[in-house]
């Protein structure tokens, strides 16, 4: 029976709707297992810009630092996307949060619920049994290097950078995880062209010496982008840089049937942050149709990783499994065989999950 | 009846085997249509390093400049891949060729031959009718910016750079192509994080004003990586930067059933270069099993784009179609339904194509 303080940071778009469901799930877990969870809320992204002028107010950061874990939604707004000269952007809040909290490791487990085998655009016989754990480096690379313009604004540049230390610490996390799984690690880079990738590969090779029981493979990112679709079962743990991880994990969401099913954990020096890998999805915001399961599964990751509550975490995952087995689907994972009365909106889907905890 | 000089540049690994087939196809076309094609050969990549110490000898470059078109194979060797500190690499030859010949536009048509609908890991009902033309920028971005080490080698950096001019010229090529197709252009960037992408988006928006008949969509690269698999038919022409194009086109090869089927054209200021998008594939080199069709289809692109020989180009494509309809498959595109005696090696597959020209 533990007492924990959880910060809810819904952010933009459907972040609000899905995080509300995630929070209810945490509440139910607390009640059922006799824990005391207290909550607070904080602003980030477009909603923070509207309210305070900045995408991550100091107050939000302070609250994050003081909490035991953060349940996060999404950031982003089309308004900025179509204005390349915008100086303040919702995404800056997200990047600042990652940097300030030292969230250097982003874990993205890609696993297909059996019930959703048919929901993917990939053939079931290719998918069945696929189970990948991505480690995406999250506080370095071209995301955080110097960027700007020269020649009167006619030339733009971005600097990608990695230090040995940055690669080492994420490598160790990935190797440790591989040890508890199938003992296979695939490191993805573009070492045939890029210098940061050459350092990356060097460090992985060195760290590998400490884990002789783990089988290591190095792949070029273009090959990985192809192999993830061609043969997803060949992967166990994948470790890669920030930008490549961004691209490959979104691609890999198709292995799980839908982005709406995928949770992620960002961990590092202090408070961990848990969030869906999907974005703010303004096209469906406010319609009550967003799939809340990625936020629910983020709550499960939070319980497991930040609170060490394995049983509680499994109770959440089993509830999701049960809801899917009962045939309930949100719109994004429904298909031609789904009965119309089994297609549920955000809240109704959440209620079904709560029923089974 | 034209006279043309074609330079054959096989490069490394299976490049040798597949380019030999591509050349035979060009020969047959010349004979059949009464053209005179003369040939020469040049070194690049690992084989060039072995023979001369450098990955692209001046002599090769000179021959390329003087030829009417180049039929290229592949470069690369595992020896360098696993040695992050190698100073001379096969890939440097490829990059130098692209830069020196001003090959700023890499066209990668992704189209599925009907006969191969079953060969992909993606469901046939998702694929049927997909037809995408990628324009990958090929002489800028992080590929060609300054790169190096600092802090005693403990920090690596790569600079990504784009100028307005570089984006404009590839944008125009892509818009022109969209006009001859479904009039839809998707520009892919990461403008929510990267400055070069913001410039990219700015320029695409400006050039779009000259093409009001073309419908433009901007996507973030992570979303595109996902949507290519989820719904490939939503794309017509896609234009993107060098690194994103590298990743996305390899991924998109799964739409065409296999990398072994995909050809590309690199064009720009002078001689055009035509090559498979697959690599040197040292794991199958020398075994005579490589699929030669990507090189054959590269020859078709060469005839069309560099020589303006539409009929000749179609004759090649139709021959490939016929061979597939006859049920012949190389190993990479064979499946459980392929009769063992229909699975052909590199040369035998080439012979079948020649029969139908
Ligand atoms: C919103 C964006 C800045 C972010 C990223 O690129 O990291 C998102 O795509 C993600 O993957 O969390
Ligand atoms: C071999 C490598 C340098 C090259 C690239 O990244 O451009 C290859 O992957 C390609 O796509 O032609």
TrEMBL record, chains A, B:
Residues annotated to bind substrate: 98, 108, 136, 222
Site features described as Important for catalysis, chain residue numbers: 143, 190
Presence of the UniProt keyword Manganese in the record: yes
GO biological process terms, semicolon-separated: L-leucine biosynthetic process
Gene Ontology terms, MF aspect: 3-isopropylmalate dehydrogenase activity; magnesium ion binding; NAD binding
Pathway note: Amino-acid biosynthesis; L-leucine biosynthesis; L-leucine from 3-methyl-2-oxobutanoate: step 3/4
Necessary cofactors: Mg(2+); Mn(2+)
Annotated Mg(2+) binding sites: 222, 246, 250
Main location: cytoplasm
Domain Isopropylmalate dehydrogenase-like: 5-353
Catalytic activity: (2R,3S)-3-isopropylmalate + NAD(+) = 4-methyl-2-oxopentanoate + CO2 + NADH
InterPro entries: IsoCit/isopropylmalate_DH_CS, IsoPropMal-DH-like_dom, Isopropylmalate_DH
Note on cofactor: Binds 1 Mg(2+) or Mn(2+) ion per subunit.
Domain of life: Bacteria
Gene Ontology annotations for the cellular component aspect, listed alphabetically: cytosol
EC primary class: oxidoreductase
Cell location: Cytoplasm
Enzyme Commission number(s) from the entry: 1.1.1.85
Keywords: Amino-acid biosynthesis, Branched-chain amino acid biosynthesis, Cytoplasm, Leucine biosynthesis, Magnesium, Manganese, Metal-binding, NAD, Oxidoreductase
Pfam family, one: Iso_dh
Keyword NAD on entry: yes
Protein family: Belongs to the isocitrate and isopropylmalate dehydrogenases family. LeuB type 1 subfamily.
Oligomer and partners: Homodimer.
Function in brief: Catalyzes the oxidation of 3-carboxy-2-hydroxy-4-methylpentanoate (3-isopropylmalate) to 3-carboxy-4-methyl-2-oxopentanoate. The product decarboxylates to 4-methyl-2 oxopentanoate.
Protein name (database record): 3-isopropylmalate dehydrogenase
High-level lineage: Bacteria, Pseudomonadati, Bacteroidota, Chitinophagia, Chitinophagales
